[in-house]
Amino acid sequence: MYNKKVMDHFMNPRNVGEIADPDGMGEVGNLKCGDIMRIYLRIDPTTDVIEDIKFKTFGCGSAVASSSIATEMIMGKTVEEALKLTNKDVLKELGGLPTIKVHCSVLAEQAFKAAAYDYATRHDKHYAALENYSPEEAEHDHHHDEDED
Question: How many whole angstroms separate alpha carbon 72 and alpha carbon 144?
Fold first, then answer.
C-alpha cells in the first residue's frame, strides 16, 4: 500500500518538533479525517531564507510522511521559492500516496502557506503567492488537487 520512501518518512520523520518563538507558525486541519498539521518557521530577515522548519502532525502515516518530506523540500529556500511548493510536488517527492490519502499532501502545502502568511503578516512582508490567501478559507479547502495526473 505504501512505498519505501513514505514508510521511511513515517517511521523516521525529519524536522519533528517546535521552534520556540517562531517567525511564522501555521496550523491546518481536515475535519473529515481528523488530521492536524502545524508548521513552525525560522527565517533570516535579511535574506528571507528559511533557516529552520519544524512540524507537529496529529494524524495518519501519510500525514506524517507528507509533513516530513515537505519540510525537507522547503528548508534552505527563500519564502518566495518555498511558496511555489504544491501538494503535487509533495506527492511526486514521496513517490505517490493512495488516492484516499492525497489530502495529506494538501495539508502539508496549506500548513506551510499558513506559516508563511503568519510570517508575512507579523513582519510586514509581501509575497505575490499570498495575495489572495486567507487562512480562514484554507481551513475549509482541503480537497483541491486530489486527482493525481
Answer: 23
